[in-house]
Amino acid sequence: MSKDGGREKVIFLADCQSFYASVEKAEHPGYENKPVAVAGSVERRSGIILAACPIAKSFGIGTADRLGEALNKCPELVVMRPRMQHYIDVSLMITKIYEEFTDLVEVFSIDEQFLDVSASLHLFGDPITIAKQIQQKVLSQTGVRVRVGISSNKILAKIATDIWAKKNKEGIFTLPPTEVETLLWPQPVNKMFGVGSRMTAHFTLLGMHTIGDIARTPLPRLKEKFRARFGKQSDIQAEVMWRTANGIDDSPVTPRTFDTPPKSVGHMMTLPRDYIEPWEVETILLELTEEVCRDCRRKGYMGAVVSVSCMCSPYEAPTGFSRQMKMPDPTNHTNTVFEAVKTLFYKFWNRLPVRRIGITLSQLKDDQEYQLTLFEDQVKARALDKVTDHIKNRYGSAAIVRASSLTTAGQAGERALKIGGHYK
Ligand SMILES: [Mg+2]
């Protein structure tokens, strides 16, 4: 477990209940006792519910439901248009309140923050007392109800919130590492962080029904089972699941830096030989895109403009190009940027052998605004990027490489070894 000089840390995951809907309700007192939802494309019934207040949820309405379905379930639903910049402002206000209690606050999403309050106990009291003070302060200043999961590391704090603090009356729950076996292990696998409906189905087929079933499987055995289902690439995934089920997480609460965004984030690569085949070059383009996007995600930026620069052989008379394009929305999502990169590359590549290639994202802005275009598939794409980043940050960037990088053209494994300090 996370220990600091032999002492266990105290980590919170503070989650805002029905965040967007709560902000709207707080500012529209007339709707206090009405079912309220915030939805995109309010004009069209095809819009998606971004947040539903507890009253609306009692009608069976949930996040990512179609607006039409929601109105069928609850015709008197008050539907409001999202005001994203305002939610971002409120979220920053809430972060500032947390920072009164500790300088170690990590923004996990617009409505979830990790707090390391280990060094604050002698100032503000025991963990429950701090959690209650935080709840009162946030509620009185913003009208938002906060739920707090408490444990000794981030993953257990997150689990404490998701499984218990969100469900009980106090909105506070402590999951000590010593109780993992008695409290967490009897829970069904679908309650585990990072396990969706598809993964649940896989676990069912593997005969694993509770989180304890995962935790108690020796890791080498779990890796074997995963390989049989998902192929050779799945070792890391098996390890992440196993560590989560056992509540193991050594990652520190990392406050984000509020620096102004840099002008651009880019990576360039000189190839070990001339690359001629489009698929070879594409492999490199994808690797570079992944590096750039991952850098952006780690730093909390997204870019509106992508540029590709390419130098072709021969050296004596090098040709090449450097071109950029604006994307429909600022992004740091690997696949979205990669599509733009390919478009640019094929438009300007003259088919000469490629020697050096670079990719840059510019016109950077804060990625909290990402939520502006919140749709279910994007949420999933982001979640996948996040998990990939998480694994790479922990195990090194060669830990997960896309299948194409394992070909002879791929440089990702090589690069991670050669320039391991690249990301730091
Ligand atoms: Mg929430």
Secondary-structure map with pairings?
Blueprint: E1 3-4, E2 7-8, E3 11-16, H1 19-27, E4 36-39, E5 49-52, H2 54-57, H3 67-73, E6 78-80, H4 84-99, E7 105-109, E8 112-116, H5 121-124, H6 127-142, E9 146-151, H7 154-165, E10 172-174, H8 180-184, H9 197-205, H10 211-216, H11 219-230, H12 235-245, E11 264-275, H13 278-299, E12 301-312, E13 319-331, H14 334-348, E14 354-366, H15 376-395, H16 412-418
Parallel strand pairs: 4-6, 9-10
Antiparallel strand pairs: 1-2, 3-8, 3-9, 4-5, 7-8, 11-14, 12-13, 12-14
Helix pairs in contact: 4-6, 11-12, 13-14
The structure holds magnesium ion.
Magnesium ion (MG) binds next to β3.
Catalytic activity: DNA(n) + a 2'-deoxyribonucleoside 5'-triphosphate = DNA(n+1) + diphosphate
EC number: 2.7.7.7
Protein name: DNA polymerase IV
Kindly report the average pLDDT value.
85
Alpha-carbon distance between the termini? 25 Å
Radius of gyration: 23 Å
What is the number of strand segments? 14
SSE string:
EEEHEEHHEHEEHHEHEHHHHHEHEEHEHH
Helix content: 40-55%
How large is the count of helical segments? 16
Subunit structure: Monomer.
Family: Belongs to the DNA polymerase type-Y family.
EC number: 2.7.7.7
Protein name: DNA polymerase IV
Mind explaining what this structure looks like?
The radius of gyration is 23 Å and the shape is globular. The protein contains 16 helices and 14 strands. The model is unreliable at 371-377 and 417-424 (pLDDT under 50). Helix 11 (219-230) crosses helix 12 (235-245) and helix 13 packs across helix 14 (334-348). The longest helix is centred in the C-terminal third of the chain and has 22 residues, at 278-299. Strand 9 (146-151), helix 7 (154-165) and strand 10 form a beta-alpha-beta unit. The protein folds into four domains: 3-17 and 85-182, Alpha-Beta Plaits (2-Layer Sandwich), CATH 3.30.70.270; 19-84, MutS, DNA mismatch repair protein, domain I; 187-245, Orthogonal Bundle (DNA polymerase, domain 1); 264-423, Dna Ligase, domain 1. It has a five-stranded mixed beta sheet. The protein is an alpha+beta fold and 424 residues long. The site of magnesium ion has 4 residues, from strand 3. Magnesium ion is lined by residues 15-16, 19, 111. This is DNA polymerase IV. Its EC number is 2.7.7.7. Mg(2+) binds at residues 15, 111. Belongs to the DNA polymerase type-Y family.
